[in-house]
Amino acid sequence: FRSISACEQGGHLQLALELLWLSEQVGLARGASSLPWALAKLSVRDPDVIQTALVEARRALQALQRLPQELAALWWATSMLGASNESFLRLLTEQTLGQLPSFK
User: What are the tens digits of pLDDT across the range 59-71?
Assistant: First the structure.
């Protein structure tokens, strides 16, 4: 996702989006926060795309406990996207509170 960030910083948003969709199509391994983070970084506003990303992130959160950095990235992405998936936010809150001592 460094290439997506580099494209975004260079003002090549269309190329960044193409890289994002390509990475989704080929199933590149990533963490729970990667897709929501990339969507937020690229200012994607399509509600269906955002909800799909949050559903995937919720599945990943249910499967494993996440590192504080990943939880923080999810909070940032959720805020930037204006997302309001109640079950996702509840699970994210539970995981964050459970790991609060690990945050620095």
Answer: 989 988 888 999 9
> What CA–CA distance (Å, rounded) separates 88 from 93?
9
Question: Is the distance from CB of 73 to CB of 33 less than 8 angstroms?
Answer: yes
> Which ranges of the chain would DSSP assign to H, the alpha helix?
2-9, 13-26, 34-41, 47-63, 68-81, 86-98
- The pLDDT tens digits for 69-95 are 999 999 999 999 998 789 999 999 999
**Tokens at 5, concatenated:** 């960030």
pTM for the full model?
0.83
Instruction: Give which of 36, 55, 44, 37 is closest to 13, Cα–Cα.
Output: 44
- Which DSSP string do the residues of 9-39 spell out, in sequence order? HTT-HHHHHHHHHHHHHHT----TTHHHHHH
Instruction: Report d(CA 79, CA 56) in Å as an integer.
Output: 17
